[in-house]
Amino acid sequence: MWNRLGILPWYALLVTLVLTLFSSTIVLYVNSDVYRLHLSKTVRVSSWTIFQTQLEFVKLSGLLASCRSGGSCSGSELLVRAEILASRLDVLANSDEAAIVPYIDSYRADLNAALQRLIAVFGRHDQLVGGAADGPVRALADALHAELVKLQHLLQDMLRDSTIYNESIEQRENALRLSSPTIPFIMLGLSGLALVVMLFTQLKDRERTLRQVASLRAEELRQQEDTAALIDGLPTPVCVLDNADQIVFLNAAAKAAFNSVLDELGSKLAHLDADAQTTRVISLPVGEGQSRTYRCRLTRLTWSGRNASVFVLQDTAVEGNAQLAAMGIGKMVLLGELSSAIVHELNQPLTTITVAVRNLGAALKDLPPEAPAWSKLERIQGQVERISRIVTNVRKLSSPIEPIETFVLQAVVEAALQMTGYQFELNSIRVELRDRTSGDVRIRGNPFLMEICIVNLLLNARDAFVANMASPDARRVNLELTAGSGFATLEVMDNAGGIDPALMDRVFESFVTSKLREGGMGVGLAISRRAVQRMGGTIAAENRDGGACLTIRLPISSV
Amino acid sequence: MPSALICDDEKGIADELAEFFDAKGVDVACAYCGGEARELIAAQRFDYLVTDGAMPGGSGEELVAFVLALPEDQRPRVICLMTGAADTQAELDPTVLKVRKPFDPELLHDSLLCLLNEKCRESR
Question: With a cut of 0.85, is the ipTM above it?
């Protein structure tokens, strides 16, 4: 129960002790007072009744002495005095007040006997009342004297006992007067001490609690400073709103991004219908009529001791680039791990085919030279060699060294068109080559890499037509070759819709592609750029006339 | 008539090479793993050993090392290692001929014959 009330058990013990001591002190004090009153009353009764009786005894004795010595004496006066004495004896023996005096019990029988005898004397001499004859009066005086003589010893004993009793009562009163305040005072002192202990311990407990609260508060402040520093260093904008929807904190990234639009930012975040499980998208101006889109994620926490809303704002453009970069890293690792195995696995069947073609040629040696089987074998051998070169080039993609020779650019372009001809025919794509040069254009470099480069551009155009589901009637790819100022320029243009502007700046980077979901690896243009750069040239991309235009510029060899 | 042991876990390559060398007048035996090749080499001395570089049950490089450890009069006279995607990382005896797949079998045959002739001249 104490625990439920939040009170420590020893606190309860102290409170109980204080209350007990205090109530005991009151009871003790009251009882002591009552006892003192009782004693006083006992003494008063004891002294008063005995002395009153003694006084009447003395008065009657004096009157009797006068009567018996021959002085004037009235019988009625004697009787009145005797009756007064009898009434005193009755009070002394039978009244409630006398009953509280303990020693009277031992005299009660004698007192009542003396009382009865006096009453008997009254009975024998009641005719004297009002009379004044000497004889009867003297007889009454003698009778009373005889009774008084008997009574004298009894009263003297009682007086002695009364004196002894009163002295004992006085001693007890003195003792009580001296001792009675001590115990209540001691108990009051104990109560006070217990109260002081209780207050002291409570004070210490409060001090300890305050120290703990102060320590926790300091720790909270330190953690908050650490958190603020951590958040401040994040590259992602973070904004904290208090429960009054006022911006109370912006990290460095947020200040840099939103410094000019703080009011709009606060307003949009305050009215954002978001919770911790969902994200919302807001758009904020970035100047010159442009805006930027942010994905907002909300976290609710305590900030400076108040409930606050923390918004993490992710630039969707940066987010997209990060996703692409992450995919690029993954693909790079994947390609690195797989390339060796893929090349090996391709080389095995290529070797088998190569040797098998030789063996087949040996088996067909009796056929005439014009037999179709020879051209078929030659075509198989040629395609196997082409595959071998492609595999070799893939293997050498990361190698800085390729065989360098001088080749004719037109021949390479023709070879690339031949290689992709079937694909273009299959997809109803019309291809036209416009050679505006005045003769062979010789380039210093690797013709196989150049062929791969042009094939990549052509296949990208084909993929764009397929992806955009362009009408087969309008599918067109134009190649235009020009030369001048020591450079040859080859433009590959299509009308397939062009390149996504968001990817335009990074289109030549590895693993950047708009065909992620279609399984594109995003390495074609990267290989093409590497091939062109190794030959001292450049490659650029732009959107033109509803399509993409890739321009290769190569230095013309003088050799 | 020279003799050759072709060792490749790719059965198509081993069989086609065997047919090609057979047509060139070489006495050919085939093995499809390193262990099988060791047994054949222990039983017979070959003029040529043409082995794949990567095989289950012991690589071609281990087979070459095993052969080179044999007494000279028991080992094949000419040893050729066919490599796949990557060049072998192991330091090989300079007398071992390395060819990268895919290769022209005519060129391989001519090279082996040339090396065999050199060996024969040296031995004389």
Answer: no
